[in-house]
Amino acid sequence: MHKKYNAKIAGMGHYHPSKILNNYDLEKIVDTTDEWIRTRTGMFERRIAADDEASSDLALKASEMALQNAGIRAKDIDLIIVGTVTPDHAFPATGCILQHKLGIKNNCPAFDLSAGCTGFIYASDIARQYIENGVYKNILVVAVEILTRIVNWKDRNTCVLFGDAAGAAVISRAERSDISHFFDSVIFSDGAYGDLLIQQAGGSKYPASKSTVRKNQHTIYMEGNKIFKLAIKSMAGACEVVMKRNNLDIKDVDWLIPHQANLRIIEGVGKKLKMDKEKVIINIEKYGNTSASTIPCALSEAVEINQIRRGDMVMTVAFGAGLTSGSMIFRY
Ligand code: UT7
Description:
alpha/beta, 11 helices, 5-stranded mixed beta sheet
């Protein structure tokens, strides 16, 4: 595809709520153990949003950090895309609410995108193409989740897994002299597996009723084991597609940032791709699965501690509700 311009990540931001829920706390809530959670998932702690925090509040904090790191003002944003499955409301879009909270009055478009845990890669894929085609110069991509509001705290199969967080990226037009730029991204979905990970009620199919509440249909339903088997194959597959399309080898990649759903999945993907273990970014122990937010948060933290530096080659990959998957490669 002919590109007019290159797109780059100009700045990253992240926000984790301060309240911590660890595995020992969970032992008091459901029939589980620290040992089971650690060995089956790699998780130890997760963050819980405060009662007065909505997704747009978490998104605001991550966005402010990303704008500051990119060195641009909120009014210079041309488009806002928010990847989330836990928006403030069904409508208006959390992107529009975030636009207002950032004080942006330039009438820029803003919308939400539902791609589950692949939300950041989907949103970045769209942003990249708007920049490369010359339509926009600065796009704010945010992935935010308050999953702890939609977990069933009586279901040990799911409630131990999820946490709350926001990650943000300012994706901008790169100058010719910039070392940072996107190579490519790929996104996929297979709707045949939609029922494996679903919040059944609250939409047009099963509007909220006493019955939907009684049956816990407003909370996350997941067939974890079936998803586990599909995850490694499709994540490694997405990476292989994007590398092949760009004549890149795993040795060209400095850092792999996989979606943080399960340490065993992360290790399985790394192994399948033959990636050195030290080059795989992992923070699942601290935050659990924060869906779309895991990748931008991990990238932002790695940049903050100078682990990932300008010019490093980064590959990210995710898998989530839909079932969706995707991967992208960029020079940070
Ligand atoms: O974010 C994107 C989408 N999500 C994912 O990618 C998640 C993918 N799936 C997974 O990560 C894993 O399947 C889980 C972590 C969810 C579950 O691990 P598993 O090794 O697949 O366990 P399982 O579901 O096969 O359950 C094994 C046993 C069961 O007991 P029985 O039937 O063997 O007696 C469960 O009831 O573990 C039991 N179990 C638990 N035990 C203690 C399930 N959850 C817990 C728990 N504590 N929290």
